[in-house]
Give the backbone structure.
Amino acid sequence: MPMQKQQFLKIHPHDNVLVALQNLAAGTVINFEGDTFALTTDIAAKHKFSLTELKAGDEILMYGVLVGKATLEIPKGGPISIETVHHASGEFHLGKRKTEWHQPDTSKFEGRTFMGYHRADGSVGTGNYWVVIPLVFCENRNINVLKEALSEKLGYKKAKSYEADVDQLIGLYQAGKSVEEIINADIQAAPDKAKSKRLFKNIDGIKFLTHDMGCGCNRSDAQTLCGLIAGYITNPNVAGATILSLGCQNAQVSILQQEIQARDASFSKPLVILEQQKTGTEAELMQQALKQTFAGLVKANETERQPAPLSKLCIGLECGGSDGFSGISANPALGYVSDLLVSMGGSVILSEFPELCGVEQELSDRCVDEEKANYFMQLMTTYNARAEADGSGFYANPSPGNIRDGLITDAIKSAGAAKKGGTSPVADVLDYPQKATKAGLNLLCTPGSDVESTTAEVGSGATVVLFTTGLGTPTGNPVTPVIKLSTNTATAVKMPDIIDINCGTIIEGEETIQQAGERILDYVIQVASGEAEPKAVQLGQDDWIPWKRGISL
């Protein structure tokens, strides 16, 4: 039977606020744990109101942790808003290890496999992509030339839906229609053309990744860029790569080769590296790139999908366009998926360090040893200090959209975001762009910016990304499928072209967090096997932004 729908929710026994699960009008009588009071104002769904009378300076608790302090007197039933509360989070220190946890029942998934691409290093990919990447922005134009030459001819060019629409607009203009008539015209979206037949049936795509880095930056950024590119080349979802270098830039070929070796000492994938200053003319560079890339594709096409245990999955955990329901629906559901996968020997990556502010103590205590706990706290402290020195800080992380939908402080946002990591021990702590090598929960230092963070997770080895959103975002990745989960039904209904799974069922009492988590993992297995294609993949949403270690929250 479906659970009864609720008007509000207390997330943790220690909390002194309630979350509105639906729009509540001023004067609504709240009956909670033997106490009765009326709301002092309208409270929109996803927003919070006080359980007690609060004075200026009093602490606001959600998820059982400090998430803010009152700036004004807040009556019982009064709103928790940017006008009445400012960011605050608890201090943290090296504590005792708390690695005991209750593993979920995984019997439903015993013996399950996915159909993946097995690599020489023992990893298994959920896709088989060829990547073409420049070591420096000077080569972006040549990357685009290769894209124009290869994509359509080999069957990887995405059909364009709107060219016929433009033809209709041209026709209206040529017929002498006014601007107002053109604006009000009923333009019928043309259906997608059939996809071109792929020449290489086992190559899922050729991806051309451009960027604005590689030179004119500090040497550390160049080294980091090479590490990120090496992470993509060695990602199990990548069959091989073509790398274009100018030759004189900071991001040298030798650095890239060192970074590849650091991640895979026995690297054996097809790899084409060309330097324009050694080659000479553009024509010669393009001819070599085309011939060698084509030869590499022939080799990579020999790999076919084969069964693999679920322990070979590495899932990135991400959120973007978060709202006040993120921490009580989709994020906890991902946490359950994380615990399921960890229990079966798989790997998960939790990133976005600005969105772990306020839960540092819990996560550091869950680290398997003190060295990793100290490293995590050091990364958090250093990152926030650099942000503050630049005139900001973790407190500035929530976006206007976050705030509008109930995430009014970074600590509120963070406490909910951390739920994606489940409850298992922290197996490893990584700095960007290190590779995840340990089974279990990995913490990866990245910004909260969803594209930069998703880019980083895949660079660290994620072969599937689970991405929760309350407001809706089309974010994807070139080589790893990004599965989009809505925190609420309204967004899922409004934006079906980008949402794969609706977790609003949890808010509405139709499904438990555990049931949603199992449903999500079932879909992950389909995607990992190539049996289902997430919306971001269908749209060709190939977002790729390397993180400059300057301040980005």
